[in-house]
Amino acid sequence: MDSSDLGHSAACAATEGAGLPEARREPATEAPFALVEPLHRTSPLIFSSPHSGRRYPAELLADARVGLISLRRTEDAYVDELFAGAAAHGAALLTATFARAYVDLNRDAAELDPEMFDERPPASVHTSSARVQAGLGAIPRISGDGQAIYRRKLSLHEAARRIDAVHRPYHAALENLLAQTKTQFGCAVLIDCHSMPSSARGAHAPDIVLGDRFGASCHPSVTALAEATLRRLGYRVARNAPFAGGHTTQTYGRPAQRVHALQIEINRALYVDERTLERTHGHTRVRADMSRLAEALAAAALHKSLA
Fold first, then answer.
1. 58, 85, 94, 173: most buried by Cβ count inside 10 Å?
2. 136, 250, 133, 253: which is closest to 189 by C-alpha?
3. Binning pLDDT at 50, 70 and 90, where does residue 125 land?
4. 38 DSSP β-pair partners
5. Cα–Cα distance, 175 to 131 (Å, whole number)
6. What does the CA dihedral 3, 14, 105, 252 come to, rounded to 10 degrees?
7. How far apart are CA 6 and CA 89, in angstroms?
8. Per DSSP, what are the bridge partners of residue 7?
9. DSSP secondary structure string, 4-18?
10. What are the structural domains, with CATH classification, of the chain?
11. 249/253 Cα distance (integer angstroms)
12. Model-level pTM greater than 0.85?
């Protein structure tokens, strides 16, 4: 992508080829997100990548009973890179910088696992959610390969510090971006970008899953256009199974208020070696195709039909 297509970045995004995570001792001093916008916003599209952060603070590494590769299997590796072309088509791109293993931005801040802490979090529906019970709350208990992350119980103060330093600023930025976009275009369309582990469910398992919470978070025309574009590019596409959308789509998808949210999950095996987490030759193709998806959505002039 030509650098002249970009306007500014709220933080330094990971550079091309920067696959190694960074260790930091003072997470509060690090920007919790990177925001890239074009010089001229011409589309109501916002692409977000809450799980592709590659910063692993030293405190996390010191407390972990598993190795870095196990922690990294929690990532949606390089999804931020796959959608880096969005700004060239008049859209905004918001990406996490801190690792999902440190704090999960696609969870409610109150989704804290009582088993992880030396004192119980305040009881709520969030502390007993299915995601918490699976070990994948706002502070994950298990890694992407199912291993327990921590060698000790954490304090609630530690959890609160991570939420305040990373989770709240990210969502404040996203809320602000959605509000500005809706004011400018009359609507906002959030594409929440993720990757999923390859599945052993057979030859016809989907390459990409689109989640609109069964129509509750996004106007059907957006989902249909995304599906048609991806199928034309040669991908097997499913809707809402096995992923219908997470905290982001549930929180921000309000079609009646002209704010639409669509989740996209890309089969990781298409572009990365799942054993080593190194990019494969497929990375170039998928990145180009996700730019084509952004182009198709932008060309549809969604603001004229959805506003």
1. 94
2. 253
3. low
4. 6
5. 23
6. 10
7. 10
8. none
9. GGEEEESS-PPPTT-
10. 3-54+77-97+166-306 (3.40.630.40)
11. 5
12. yes
